[in-house]
Write a structure and sequence with these properties.
By secondary structure, this protein is α/β, with parallel strands linked by helices. The protein folds into 2 domains: 269 residues, TIM Barrel (Alpha-Beta Barrel); 70 residues, Type Iii Antifreeze Protein Isoform Hplc 12, CATH 3.90.1210.10. It is 35% helix and 17% strand. Strands 1, 2, 3, 4, 5, 6, 7, 8 and 9 form a 9-stranded parallel beta sheet that branches. A two-stranded antiparallel ribbon has the order 10-11. Strands 12-13 form a two-stranded antiparallel ribbon. Helix 2 runs parallel beside helix 6, helix 2 packs parallel to helix 12 and helix 11 packs parallel to helix 12.
Length: 355
């Protein structure tokens, strides 16, 4: 627990990001693919990889459970939801192997349980954090069971209302740490439907660290989310976009995930500290571009300074341009040759006298 808690950003002002590769069900129900996803996530630069853990018979019914439209598009209409999910189910021994492999190569492993039996198994594996998926944001029973583990919790908020999120947050008030992910439960999510302003809404409403469970294609929306304060990012990872399965089309292949991580880590550095000041990297350009009054003609001693006598020229120093109008209330204190940078000592200002 200590490792992941020290890794996860604790506010929208954090100077680091935590990137989760969502292995989800993109292993297609096979251990070898799951292990390859673990390696791909590590190679891409992700901090963690997450899967989903369930027993199909405890969650789905062969007749009652509905097939979402995005799954129909991905796998067709010939299978029931029960069969689709059953074909993707991994065994307990598979998950033990996945966790062992993740630990061996140095990437954090955790998972989303769909019911109490799977939650208990994940506790047996001693995962460092528990993810509650959007589908269970209104599942008070599972939420209470997850809370009872004493583990830090990541909660996704897709397909929900603010009041439903508030209710879940209230139930989880005593969690050792609670992270909220803005999410749109569409696979893939069009960028115009990403509703990223909800990141600010969630942060203001709940004062919790906020992240983005990103179902869009590409990296652009993630960078916008970063600018809005998201510091935890979850993105589906696939070995092949052409594979049959419900989530591949909302996923990145390994080379794209590598770019995703790179862009986010560069992006967090680009935000800076928010203090408006002259940066060291700007000083040379500032010196080269500053303009100061320079005589455009010879100005005789005692002559009043007129607008036609001076120009603002890029030079290293001189009288600041904000005093431009003040120059024309003065006289020359000496002969000022054309091309000379004006100095205060070159000028005489007559005191106003009361009439």
């Amino acid at each position: 627990m200590n490792k992941i808690l020290s890794s996860l950003p604790d506010s929208s002002n954090s100077d680091s990001v935590f990137i989760i590769a969502e292995g989800g069900v993109n292993h297609n129900g096979t251990l070898n693919d799951a292990l390859e996803l673990v390696e791909a996530a590590k190679d891409a630069g992700c901090d963690a990889i997450k899967f989903q853990t369930w027993k199909t018979e405890l969650v789905y019914d062969s007749k009652l459970s509905l097939v979402p439209e995005y799954q129909k598009r991905a796998v067709g209409v010939s299978k029931s939801e029960f069969q689709i999910i059953k074909d993707l189910e991994l065994s307990w021994s598979d998950f033990r192997a996945i966790k062992a492999h993740a630990e061996k190569i140095g990437i954090i492993f955790f998972s989303t349980p769909d019911e109490k039996v799977s939650l208990d198994f994940l506790m047996e594996l001693d995962v460092p954090i528990i993810k509650i998926g959007s589908q269970d944001l209104t599942n008070d029973i599972l939420i209470r069971q997850v809370l009872a583990t004493g583990k830090p919790i990541i909660l996704s908020t897709g397909a929900s209302t603010l009041s439903e999120v508030a209710h879940a947050v209230e139930l989880l008030m005593n969690a050792p740490k609670l992270y909220l992910l803005h999410c749109v439960s569409a696979y893939p999510t069009p960028a115009v439907e990403a509703n990223l302003s909800c990141i600010s809404t969630l942060a203001a409403a709940f004062s919790r660290p906020i992240g983005f469970s990103d179902h869009t294609n590409g990296t652009a929306t993630a960078l916008v989310a970063l600018g809005l304060g998201a510091r935890i990012f979850e993105k589906h990872l696939t070995l092949d976009l052409k594979q049959e399965g419900p989530d591949h089309q909302a996923s990145l292949i390994p080379t794209e995930m590598q770019k995703y991580c790179k862009h986010l880590r560069e992006g967090i550095l680009s935000l800076g500290n928010g203090q408006k000041a002259i940066l060291e990297i700007e000083r040379d350009v500032r010196s080269a571009f500053m303009r100061f009054p320079v005589a455009s003609v010879d100005i005789q001693k005692g002559e009043s300074i007129k607008e036609g006598d001076v120009n603002l020229v890029k030079t290293l120093n001189g009288i600041p341009s904000k005093y431009w109008d003040l120059l024309f209330t003065s006289k020359s204190n000496k002969l000022i040759l054309k091309g000379s940078v004006l100095k205060w000592s070159d000028l005489i200002f007559e005191e106003n006298s009361e009439s």
